[in-house]
Amino acid sequence: MHLKTRLHNHLFTLLESRKSTLQAQRNQLSVESSESGKGSAGDKHEVGIAMAQLEVEKLDKQIVLLQQQIAVLHKLDPKHENIQVLHGALFKIDENWYYCSIAFGQISLGQTNYFCLSPEAPLFIALKGKKVNEQATFNQKVWQIQQIL
Description:
Elements: H1 3-36, H2 43-75, E1 90-93, E2 96-100, E3 105-109, E4 112-117, H3 122-127, E5 135-138, E6 141-144, E7 147-148
């Protein structure tokens, strides 16, 4: 399996895992808040329920964001070989690998770290359309593309 496909699948697995964790937390909060409502009364109880509801709403927003990121990943074809830095490209600069897919930050696969960035990331915007050995200046630094997959 190609490096980009393995990385893509690993990122997808991380997103699904994070989504499952958040959904479990949300379900637990819902159960706890409904159980605490049985036989309790008073302002302290109502504040507790309101705080739990706010936490559920926060988790819901995070889950929606993860679902959107998963949808974006589904649209990318990791088997496509890029010759330019475009959405879906995996590229190398100064011994660092970057995967233009979704904003996720750094992930590890094997012994290598990869930086997952979105098409809206300033670095991607500066490098968009560049080919191997081409350069762009970003944050007063020259970035030269060494490899693109």
